[in-house]
Specification:
This protein starts with a helix and ends with a helix. The chain is built from two helices and eight strands. The protein has 134 residues and is mainly β. A six-stranded antiparallel beta barrel has the order 3-4-5-8-7-6. The protein has a two-stranded antiparallel ribbon with strand order 1-2. A hairpin with a 3-residue loop joins strand 4 and strand 5.
């Protein structure tokens, strides 16, 4: 089915023109360059937040991030993420849903938020709304 609407991610309109992108994300995301810290047990890793949404984050940091072990309880890699938006210190518990080694000493992790308080949600929601570009 190469080239079909389903494969392309676009829904066709009149005469096959693409109308909308079939985006499967629940929340809009925005590009950032915020500093953040991963706290995994006793270890703290400085990272850069590449993008964020109310559903999760994409972070980049040292290559050791791809080697973090899975929890024997959940079978997933989970950790705390601390960052600052508009002088407000925020934290979130996250689960790794994507990981990629970018180079020997750099890795990217896609994170799903698994726990976050309401005030942090409001700050992120406001930040995303203020930084969306259409």
């Amino acid at each position: 089915m190469a080239g079909s609407e389903k494969d392309s991610g676009f829904v066709s309109g009149k005469e096959g023109a693409p109308l909308v992108h079939d985006e499967r994300r629940l929340y809009p995301r925005v590009v950032t360059n915020l500093g953040a810290q991963v706290q995994f047990g006793e270890d703290i890793f400085p990272v850069e937040m590449v993008n964020l949404s109310l559903g999760g984050f994409l972070i980049e940091g040292c290559g050791r991030l791809v080697d973090l072990p899975k929890s024997p309880v959940t079978g997933a890699i989970e950790f705390g993420l601390s960052f600052e938006i508009e002088n407000q210190k925020l934290t979130s518990q996250c689960r790794v849903v994507y990981k990629r080694r970018l180079s020997v000493d750099k890795a990217a992790l896609g994170l799903k938020i698994i726990d976050m308080d309401e005030s942090t949600q409001r700050v992120i929601d406001t930040y995303v709304r203020n930084n969306l570009s259409y």
